[in-house]
Amino acid sequence: AMALCLKQVFNKDKTFRPRKRFEPGTQRFELYKKAQASLKSGLDLKAVVQLPPGESINDWIAVHVVDFFNRINLIYGTMSEYCTEKSCPIMSGGLKYEYRWQDDNKYKKPTKLSAPKYMCMLMDWIEMLINNEDIFPTRIGVPFPKQFQQVCTKILTRLFRVFVHVYIHHFDSIINMGAEAHVNTCYKHFYYFIREFSLIDHRELEPLVRM
Question: InterPro entries, from UniProt (predicted)?
């Protein structure tokens, strides 16, 4: 019933293009299925995020980073018609927080962008990273790079900003679309995961601390 309800709420056409899939038959696909099964079983989210016995921490983080990316991408894709150059000329979280974009290509210095432009840059940047075999290896026996968790921290920190913007600037739209419960569950899951593995600096969490 929940899945049917979500299909009505989240129109597939509104999302950004489909992202990386876990290949069936691989160890990470099995881990992904295990994580999804725990999630669907209605277990306490704090328990769901814990590393299963005998599993590698980097595999567990990789599976969750890709899954959160896909789900947050879907949430923002559904919201995107309400988040425009006109409504959101600056990527922000209320009056107190402003997020500037920086990457190694076009934007070498932190640059003010509108929220839709920031989101577009963000999704493309994450897609490039998770599809890079040197950073997110998919072949069995290929080790993760030394800086893997640092890269994931950067990805998750920026994904957190999507929640900040959506909750502070577009919460009415979430409620009007009947998506509040789904977005809240996704946010809680994300929050417990980053806290479990200390993957985001606590100062980044301040905009949503009241939640």
Answer: MOB_kinase_act_fam (IPR005301), MOB_kinase_act_sf (IPR036703)
